[in-house]
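Researcher: Here's my situation. A collaborator sent me these components and asked whether they could plausibly form a single complex. I don't have experimental data yet, so a predicted model of the whole assembly would be a useful starting point for our discussion.
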Amino acid sequence: MKSILQLWRLPANRSGLSGLAAIVPVIGLALILPTELFAQEVPVATRLEMRHFWHVFIAYALAWLILAGWVLSILKRLRRVEEKLD
Amino acid sequence: MSLRAIRRGALILGFLGIGLTLVFHWMVFFWVSTEATLGISQRIFYIHVAGMWTGLLAFIMVAVCSVMYLWLRDDRLDQIGQAAAEGGLVFFAVGLTAGPLWARLAWGTWWTWEPRLTLSLLAFFIYIGYLMVRGATENRERGKMFAAVIGVVGAINIPLIHVSVLWFRSLHPEPVVARQEGPALPADMLVTMLTAVLAWTVLLFALILLRYGAARLETRAEARALQRGATA
């Protein structure tokens, strides 16, 4: 497979465009057109499942963050008091 | 109870709580069956219920300590109450954040002003007030007394949260565990939920002990500073 740099060095074709320059309009078109035209349709069930997965992940991650925050605040307080007592 | 005993108790309960929490996480992600209608999002239920239950238990502790403090005026009761209020807020915050994440998938909305949700949010703000009022007065003893009054009055809200689904029209389902006919949950879900509740209850007590220990040390440091000031 040719690298991007090699692609730039390809000789200009009959229309005078190099290899990569010929691809640019195609990429531009792909960006403008809706993705649904190209992408394979993701089943609705899978999409919903992924959404459920993210909600579960965020719920558990937040739970641990909140608990860890309290534990750290207590430990910080303990260290400060112990330093004061020393 | 000596500071060493408090620290040892917190350590033992802490390890037990973390161990049980790891067990309940394993049960949630690898053992319990997936609910047929709600799919994997139902797994949020275990931390939602455990968080709310633990939070409410801590708020009951605040109420008991507040009554005792108003009666006996013992600073240690106020310190336990303060530690319990912090713990209650932390676990309640877990329940209150997990709830909307589940509600968005189950009900189609993040939040709605239905009775149980509204009363739960009210409880959250009451205990924020309980912690804030201490610093709002110049006289520290008066601040503690005001906090204790809030702790007692706020407790009225706790049974209301429980019965709100029975008294009012609510999006929350009626009780599925604490009901006369027995739990309506399948056995594996019930065991997982009870393990989660037990794990976080143990963890709550461990952290309350640790927080109480810190408060006791602060009192000791203040007394020592006062003593130094008096001798200087």
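Model: Some features of this prediction you could bring to your collaborator: Residues 44-85 of chain A form the longest helix (42 residues). The radius of gyration of chain A is 28 Å.
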